[in-house]
TrEMBL record, chain A:
GO terms for molecular function: branched-chain amino acid transmembrane transporter activity. Keywords: Cell membrane, Membrane, Transmembrane, Transmembrane helix. GO terms for cellular component: plasma membrane. PANTHER family: HIGH-AFFINITY BRANCHED-CHAIN AMINO ACID TRANSPORT PROTEIN BRAE, HIGH-AFFINITY BRANCHED-CHAIN AMINO ACID TRANSPORT SYSTEM PERMEASE. This is Branched-chain amino acid ABC transporter permease.
From TrEMBL, chain B:
Residues 38-346 form the Leucine-binding protein domain. One of its GO terms (biological process) is amino acid transport. InterPro entries: BCAA_transport, Leu-bd, Peripla_BP_I, TAT_signal. This is Amino acid ABC transporter substrate-binding protein. Pfam families: Peripla_BP_6. It comes from Hansschlegelia zhihuaiae. Residues 1-34 form the signal peptide. Keywords: Amino-acid transport, Signal, Transport. The keyword Transport applies. Gene3D superfamilies: 3.40.50.2300.
Amino acid sequence: MIAYLVTIAILVCVAALVGLALNLQWGQAGLVNFGVVGFVAIGAYAAALLTPQVGWLPAMIAAGALSAALSAGLALLSIRLEENYLAIVTLGFGEVVRLVILNEGWLTNGALGIPDIPRPFASLGESIGGDAVFIVFALGLLAIVFLALEGMARSPFGRALRAIRDDATVTSALGKNVFLLRVKAFAVGGAVMGVAGALHAYYLTYIDPSQFTPIVTAYAFMAVIAGGRGSNVGLLVGAGSIMALLEGTRFLKDVIPVIDGVQLSALRLGLIGAGIVLLLILRPQGLVPEPKRRAADVLPKAGGGR
Amino acid sequence: MTDAKLVMNRRSVVAGLGALPVAAALKTPALAQAAGDVPLGLVLPFSGATGAYGPAMKQAAELVVSQVNGAGGILGGRNVRLFIEDSETSATASVAASKKLLEVNKVELVGGFWGSPEALAAKPVILAANKVQMLSCAANAVTEGETKGLIFRLQAKSSQWGPAGAKVMQKIGAKKVTILAQQNPFIVAMVEPFKAEMKKLGGEVMDVVMYNPDQASYRAEVEKAFGPEPDAVFVLPLLTDMVSISKEIFRGGFTSKVVSLGTGADAEGKFLQAVGPEVAEGIYHLQPSPPIDSPSYARFVKQMGAPEGTVFLFAGNAWDQICITALAMEHAKTQEAAVWAKSIREVCNPPGEEVDDIVEALKMVRDGKKINFNGAGCTCDFDEKGDSLNRSFYVQLIKGGKNTPFGVVS
């Protein structure tokens, strides 16, 4: 049982990293990115191809950097677009990445995928159990990314992003370079997605194009919506809840004998959909809403305290 | 502020209550095992692109389990208990499903595995737990590399499908052919072996047209493959795309013969149901042959509730996976996977008395006889890598809205 929960926890870590990145781009900066899965795939493939050559740390950095560079590039091309059009461009980008990976067999091994991807700390894993080492690695990575993004959210950069989300014209009138800020938000988000992809590749040790379908993007949006748009803590809760719902429903058929596997598989996705709809009706601000940050909290107090 | 806090509290209470049944569920399997059941697991596709193939496999596996348990179980009267998880046609979901089966249900076998990506992703997890993985998928890579002697494939390998296709081409007199193939690991791996065999038989492959799964239209690819008017086109699809492609071929009025795979142009009868007799007319298709003429296979088809003569490809694999496991456990007198895996060839490969009924086979093993079990999907003989031996392919021609036997190639 413990080992199963560890597996789930590792998958939550990957989902949470992807979600945190989307939460920066969409939750805080208001930029819709439907191409999340494309950046995750780029990270995963970069890590899978580079790790045997240069080791895991440089490979992981390269995965993040490559994903960030492409993300920034895409942003430069398309970020002036209105929200809906940006959504279409990014959706297209995600599909393009998957099709390139599927068809450029010389580099990516095409549909056959890449097996036997070496894991970080594999030798350590042999002595005390592979998953035990990996969960520490995954949690550590999540903690670092979470702290960095949370710091960013509290910094002037984060405040400017939220200002752009709420009203770009006003922010621009205040002298902020809206365009550059948006590109930066996209690049940072892309980097985190790339790192999440690398973590996914290291955990599964086998990747192929069928793992990078738009459902990954959908789960990321679910996590952000369920957790509370703009709130990093909420995102962690959201990603955990979505995975708990997905995996928890597996057990329904073990307890309720009338439901068999075929019906359950249809029911599960229905249940998740119903859950999201209910959540949006009952708690549209998410499980842990974005904290209201007031000007008074950051500005020096005029009256010398309360 | 206080309001928000209250809501949070109520919510966490509700969430906690909601988690209770889950917590209870976690206990059940462990209890079941204490009662002496032998837990076996299957990861089958019920949703996603290959969801159509799972239900028949589940039905077959449950059928054999009820027969085994009805005849007194295995290992001195213990019942076999089956746990089945949805692969969602996803490698990631299959890893989680395998882990659940291994860690929560404590299964000795993780079988099923219709798709190669699912099997490849779950392989390290199952091997790390020292349990047996049985496959119904074709990509060569699964039995390559480290297998610990714990992986068994009930399906033909991709590299066996290709040459069989070339022999069908020879049989129908097709010299100049093109290939129209889906980009997926099962199919990509059969293209090169097919080309090599065609060359050996004096034929020529003029063009290879690949397409992506889940395309909205296949017109461009069909035009490209059929355009040069080859003698025949080797169409390598799965079910959903073959339905669209065959309609496209029909609409285009192309005259080249069509040789396809049972995975797409039969799919246990689903293809004919989907496109109707006119569109399907004249399509040849091949698949690894189950023992079509044996009485046990006829009985299997009847028990599955399918029309006589149905060629089951994957359901037979699921049936065999459970049979082989039960027999090997009985032979090894233990449910310990690492031990009974070594017994598999003892009960499956020749020499030995041939038997195809599971209840009878179990009795013979108990009596200490050396048996050679033949299954519903194949003869169940394995080489040292765990791949199926003696794979012959059964070729059918669709005529007048029916699959008619055309021959056997090996």
